[in-house]
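Folds vary. Our protein:
___
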Amino acid sequence: MASVSYKARLFVVVGEQSLYRDASIRSFSVAGGTAKDVDLNSTNDTNLLFALEQAKSKKNITLVKTPSDDDFDAILSGLFQAKTKFGLNFDVYASYTGKSWLQIVHFFGEEASLSNQPVRIGAGKKLALKVECNFPKADFKRGVQKDGKWIDDEDWIR
């Protein structure tokens, strides 16, 4: 039996211009929460969902993302400097077989903002960008998507 593998993506949507960027996420944490940092290379479903519940209730999440080859890191810095609100979407995928990936969580924060200037941390292959987000309202859906709908959530199955 293969062990579970996880990966996550951050999607940021800004205003009516439909500025849409995404990036791979290595880990995340919640300021003021009791959950530890969630390293996607060494977590499990329970720890992951517990930390996301805390992000929802504490109204913040700190993401550690891989450096971008495109302009996404610069866009994040610009969002902080301009104090721009944006839609935050954080999607988590799992592979239970080692072959295919299933989206198991869609976390979304409305009217999100960056609480601090994104900063580079680490060096070499461990170089990353730390992005601290706040939001007045957040929620997440969990389960598995089928035909673009979440199979465990009645509201999304209409």
The CA atoms of residues 93 and 103 lie 4 Å apart. Helices lie at 45-58, 72-82. The first strand starts at residue 5 and ends at 14. The chain has two helices and eleven strands.
